[in-house]
């Protein structure tokens, strides 16, 4: 797979233990402030299982994430299951404060 993301393969991203163990990524966030990424399983965030890893580590396990590499900063993508289409929406962090 050629690298399609705006961050280099060795740049850190946020994920969780279950994603690194093979659980499907159901939520991807491309943060607007620093252009970093998070790849999560859709479960409520649990800091005890949160990880910071190189983006390539997640993409090696989940090559289908290349489908959302063009997700703009400030947007998130969600899906209900592996192989299902991604729904993309602009994040509105101000309304959540």
From TrEMBL:
It comes from the Bacteria. This is Uncharacterized protein. It comes from Sphingomonas alpina.
